[in-house]
Amino acid sequence: MSLPHAILTALLEKPSSGSELTRRFDRSIGYFWSATHQQIYRELGKLERSGLIRALPGGAPTRGQKKEYEVLAAGREELVRWVDRREDPKVARDPLPLRLRAAGVVGLGDLVDELRRHRDLHQDRLEEYRDFERRDYPAEPATRQERVQRLLLVLRGGIDMEAGWISWLSRAVDELSEEASGHGPRP
Fold first, then answer.
1. Contact of 61 with 67, CB cutoff 8 Å
2. 3-state secondary structure of 17
3. Residues 130, 155: Cα–Cα separation, whole Å
4. pTM given for the model
5. What phi, psi does 141 have (nearest 5°)?
6. How many CB atoms are closer than 10 A to CB 142?
7. How crowded is residue 132: how many other Cβ atoms within 10 Å of its Cβ?
8. Which residues lie below 8 Å from residue 65, measured CB to CB, with a gap of 6+?
């Protein structure tokens, strides 16, 4: 149910075409909620049929002309309802911890190298987030609303999650590397 709400949020920030939304998902929203070009267009159609968004008036569409969408009052109301709704946390569905558990049954193989690779990828993402923070947020926002509007809290959540992955992956690599070298795991 979150993709329609991600689209409503993006359209409230700035009316956009489907291709513009796809680019925005690739550049920012996609760091925490991904969607394909086809999923975005399919969802735009559903939102329009539901009366939550509409194509901006702009004369008769011609071939190749992009339709820009805006959120209607009903769409804003739906987003307000969704923001206020109580919802339990979702379990992350990254396959790496499951692969590690399976390795306990079938053997490690090259999994330690894969753990190192994942750690490096998370390190790269962490540095990217920290670069965003330095570039886009040189001063601390003055108000709570400013923190939300400027997405600083979302960015800091991403920084904390990446740091958590790096910590866990480093510990796993260290313990599994020690075990492979015959020294056994640390207490």
1. yes
2. strand
3. 9
4. 0.73
5. -60, 145
6. 8
7. 17
8. 58
Asked if 79 and 19 count as a contact pair (C-beta separation under 8 A), the reply is no
CA distances from 69 to 22, 110, 155 (A): 13, 48, 26
pLDDT tens-digit map of 33-48: 778 889 999 999 999 9
pLDDT band at 85 (very low <50, low <70, confident <90, very high): very high
Q: Which residue has the tokens 């993006």?
A: 10
Q: What is the DSSP string of 29-96?
A: GGGTS---HHHHHHHHHHHHHTTSEEEPP-SS--TTPPPEEEE-HHHHHHHHHHHHS--PPPPP--HH
Say how many C-beta atoms besides its own lie within 10 A of residue 4's C-beta.
19
The predicted pLDDT at position 93 comes to 80
